[in-house]
Amino acid sequence: MINMTTTEIMDRKMLLNGEWVSRNEYMEIRDPQDGKLVGTVPLANLDDVEIALEAAVHGSERARSMPIHQRISILRKAAEELENRVEAFARVIALEGIKTIREARKEVVRCVETLRISSEEARRIKGETIPFDQFPGSENKVGYYLREPVGIILAITPFNDPLNLVAHKIGPAIAGGNAIILKPHEETPLCALMLAEVLMNAGLPEGVLQVITGIGSEIGEKLVTDPRVRMVSFTGGRLTGERIIKMAGLKKVSMELGSNAPTIIMNDADLDLAVPSCVSGAFWAAGQNCLHVQRLLVHSDIYDLFKERFITLSSSYQVGDKLDENTDMGPLINEEAAKRVEKSVDEALTNGANLLMGGIRNGNFYAPTLLENGHNTRLSYEEIYGPVTIIESFTNFEDAINRANSVDYGLQAAIFTRNLETAFKGMADLNVGAVMINESTDYRIDAMPFGGTKGSGLGREGVSFTLMEMTEPKVACFNI
């Protein structure tokens, strides 16, 4: 266990035009666990936004002219430095956010991988020749297309993965030769600033990356609407994403907006695999996760057994101090979030759901919670973003598929079964961006395409797929 009393207050500066700058006004970053002051960061204003935008214009020119080998070298060096500082970064993730120290270490390791993949994908930005003579009259024409940077990218990141989701935007942007303005979540900006420092140490030219800290409602609109920004990459809530799309104007947008993830447990499922996988998927990061196992659809033949084993394992979860190695689950990001989860559960119980376990709020902590018969509640079709899962039974696989598809989200779904025919049918019929077979919805590697259908967003993340979003084809045609 790491002693909380030894924590030093981190006074971080933001990165504008290659300089680390402070401001007279600042934001306090507090540990959601107990409200202790963790650090301070500058409170940016609209003048700072203009500085960032002007710097990004010049940074875009530098980024575009960076040879591929330089981009590769910068990203590799950054990955190496981060790998040597796993514990320091993990501690900051745990202190400023909602993850336990064990969860935080895994995020840092994933971030190392994200940067490494970005360095590898930089060399794969390729074009193709175009057979112009396929059209009559074009017999004397030859040519090709290549891919060029989009230009200036605005990245807006959430609190739940405050390091790796930052890398998922910065890494491909650098690999593609873009400039990027990062607006990290106001409650978890510290590790993002630390990552920016790592990248600058690795040789990133000044102006290629800006990190501006401030309140989204105060500086976000100017960043999103400015025509110099050619792409907005946003990960966060659906309502905010929809507002950004309406404001953005004529530019590229990439949106990852959450989900209401269903997991189907068939009667032939391996429960020794399914139960711990679903418990982990339900309560990782206190359920503040777009891949959170929110809906369990369990075949009636095994419903009681699965439910009993799920409750038994979940009841052993240790909730408390994030820096304690034995803690399984930490707090929600703030009291407002905890009260929102509490209200949603209370509303579900009023509307006929049964409380099987949990349902207790203690400050910013909310106990791992399982509800039954919640199909007529908002929890069955909205994203809870907390440690709450609803469970219900089914007898017909088609009915389970229909229930899984009934919401206006479609990020990931899961099926536990030993039957290949069932697995392939579920893969075909579930209207989501990814189907996990014998793995919970809360599974992702950083190289896979990641994104969803319907209200879950637009476009795909995953380094190589993000890189395609952050570059554009340009055609060269020669009349010979």
UniProtKB/TrEMBL annotation:
Residues 20-475 form the Aldehyde dehydrogenase domain. It holds the Pfam family Aldedh. This is Aldehyde dehydrogenase family protein. Keywords: Oxidoreductase. It comes from Lysinibacillus zambalensis. Belongs to the aldehyde dehydrogenase family. InterPro entries: Ald_DH/histidinol_DH, Ald_DH_C, Ald_DH_N, Aldehyde_DH_dom, ALDH-related_metabolic_enz. CDD domains: ALDH_y4uC.
